[in-house]
UniProtKB/TrEMBL annotation:
Membrane-traversing stretches: 142-160
Organism expressing this protein natively: Apiospora kogelbergensis
This protein's name: HET domain protein
Region (Disordered): 1-25
Lineage of source species: Eukaryota, Fungi, Dikarya, Ascomycota, Pezizomycotina
Domain named Heterokaryon incompatibility: residues: 71-226
PANTHER family: ANKYRIN REPEAT DOMAIN-CONTAINING PROTEIN 39 HOMOLOG-RELATED, HETEROKARYON INCOMPATIBILITY DOMAIN-CONTAINING PROTEIN
UniProt keyword terms in alphabetical order: Membrane, Transmembrane, Transmembrane helix
């Protein structure tokens, strides 16, 4: 069924898939099957290239979790209005990908070393419904076991590259100037430091921060799990060097933009240290998060919930059946008094 081909927050890969053509594979593209009855994934190896203009060449390999593979995972957004398709080669087969993913692959490609990374659009055979269901059930493990989860906000921020360079130089200079005498001065509170930083913001920096905070990426449902499960996070945008999640959040916080977007996700990450995630709360707090596939309003949060083990997930189910599963789950755990408004899923 067409709806079942939308296994994640993005549309399926078929050439004539409606809406959001993330990956357009030729009809002859074939996958090596996953190992039956074993927790395993495919990893994409990005071949190195000396020059940015060289074609993207990648390979896919099947690995078992039991072998403890080392890999990174990409968290990104497929552009809703991005219909452009750009070429790459995977396992000696040609395919096209959306521009945002193409940009991410170029950013991640190294000059001398291969890079192994899990990317849903290329590592899951979206034409195989059983495989999609199988990978869905271990999605939280995929992001949790990744050495680093890379948050890709897009190449559009390249226009701020010089601004980022000036920001970094200014902070390095300020540290060098104040470090020698730091021991002779009383400690300045974190709040005072943030106020001093905020007072020194330039126009371009303020504009960049505004766009980073309001980026459409933060409104996508699936990134809630991808960011929430990650043990280590890096944020990448434009041509700037990766930022550790903690540094990125500090940077956004010191501009006092609000409590949504990345700030809300950071609070989600902190909550796992104080009792974990409950499905009821996740459904309520993130009911406005966006996804193309309505079943993902529930399925996209199951992997985060520590009380939703063995929740039945199947893209072949109707929306009524999925809602029934949610209510049955709620009843079994003694939450039957939950009202429709408190568990509103906004199908």
């Amino acid at each position: 069924m067409a709806e079942a081909n939308q296994s994640r927050r993005r549309e399926g890969f078929e050439q004539n898939a409606p809406g959001n053509p993330a990956v357009d594979k030729h009809a002859s593209f074939s996958y090596e099957p996953l190992i039956p009855h074993v927790d395993c994934i495919r990893l994409l190896t990005i071949e190195p290239a000396e020059l940015d203009a060289q074609p993207l060449v990648c390979g896919l390999s099947v690995v078992e979790f039991g072998d403890k593979p080392t890999y990174e995972a990409l968290s990104y957004r497929w552009g809703d209005s991005d219909t452009s398709q750009l070429p790459l080669t995977v396992d000696d087969q040609e395919c096209n990908v959306g521009k945002n993913l193409w940009d991410a692959l170029h950013y991640l490609r190294q000059k001398t070393a291969k890079r192994s990374i899990w990317i849903d659009a290329l590592c899951i055979n979206q034409k195989d419904i059983l495989e999609r269901n199988r990978q869905l059930r271990i999605m939280h493990h995929i992001y949790f076991r990744a050495a680093v989860v890379i948050v890709w906000l897009g190449a559009g921020y390249s226009k701020y590259h010089d601004t980022v360079q000036r920001m970094q130089s200014r902070r390095i200079q300020a540290h060098q100037e104040t470090a020698p005498a730091a021991a002779d001065r009383p400690a300045i509170s974190d709040l005072q430091k943030e106020q001093e930083d905020a007072a020194d913001i330039g126009r371009d920096e303020a504009e960049m921060v505004e766009q980073l905070y309001d980026d459409e990426y933060w409104r996508r449902l699936w990134i809630i799990q991808e960011v929430g499960q990650a043990d280590s996070l890096q944020v990448c945008f434009g041509r700037s060097a990766p930022l550790k999640w903690e540094a990125f959040i500090h940077f956004i916080r010191m501009h006092n933009k609000g409590s949504e977007g990345p700030i809300k996700l950071d609070q989600l990450r902190q909550s796992r240290l104080t009792g974990g995630y409950k499905l009821r709360a996740l459904l309520s707090h993130h009911r406005h998060a966006r996804c193309k596939e309505p079943r993902d309003k529930v399925y996209g949060l199951i992997g985060l919930a520590d009380d939703a083990h063995r929740f039945p997930m199947d893209y072949a189910k109707t929306l009524i059946e999925v809602w029934t599963d949610v209510m049955h789950f709620t009843w079994l755990r003694g939450f039957f008094r939950v009202t429709k408004s408190s568990l509103s899923v906004h199908w």
